[in-house]
Amino acid sequence: MNRPPYGLCLPVEYHRCRDGDTVEVGIAESRWVWTIRLIDCWSPEIGELGGREAKQYAEKLMEQCLHPAVYIPMPHDCHNLLGAITFDRVPGFIFLSETLSLNEAMVAAGHATVKKLKPVL
C-alpha cells in the first residue's frame, strides 16, 4: 500500500506498543506522544490467545524500523478531526517503508485481522 494522498504524514520516533494494534510514537522535535490505533488491524488483546505474540511482533517491527512515519487520514469533514479520536487514540497507519505499513504487516503475519472478529465462546 502506498501512502494515501490526503492526510497528515509525519516522521515519528517509536516509544512503545500497548498491544498489537496500538502504538505510541513521538513527533520529532516535540515531547508530545501520540497513541496510534492502527486502522484495519485488529489483534487479540494482551490477555487473549495470541495477544502477547502480536504485541511482541509489532515491537520487533517497530524496533527494527529506522524511519517510521505516521499517516493520519483526514475525515471528510476536516473540522471534525477531534471527533475521530477515541479512548485517547488517533486512528492511523504507521509506515515502516514507502510501501509497507505496520497495519498490513501485522495482518500478513497472521497477528491481526482486517475486521474485528467476534469472540469465540
Q: How would you characterize the overall build of this protein?
A:
17% of the residues lie in helices and 28% in strands. The mean pLDDT is 87. The chain has a 5-stranded mixed beta barrel with strand order 1-2-3-5-4. It has one domain: OB fold (Dihydrolipoamide Acetyltransferase, E2P) (Beta Barrel). With 121 residues, it is of the alpha+beta class. The protein is globular and about 40 Å long. It has helices at residues 51-64, 102-108, and strands at 8-19, 22-27, 33-38, 69-72, 90-95.
List keywords for this structure.
121 residues; alpha+beta; OB fold (Dihydrolipoamide Acetyltransferase, E2P); 5-stranded mixed β-barrel; 2 helices; 17% helix; 28% strand; globular
User: What are the secondary-structure elements, in order, as H or E?
Assistant: EEEHEEH
- The CATH architecture name reads Beta Barrel
CATH topology: OB fold (Dihydrolipoamide Acetyltransferase, E2P)
Report Rg.
14 Å
What's the CATH class, please?
Answer: Mainly Beta
The residue fraction in helices comes out at: 10-25%
Task: Note the topology.
Elements: E1 8-19, E2 22-27, E3 33-38, H1 51-64, E4 69-72, E5 90-95, H2 102-108
Parallel strand pairs: 3-5
Antiparallel strand pairs: 1-2, 1-4, 2-3, 4-5
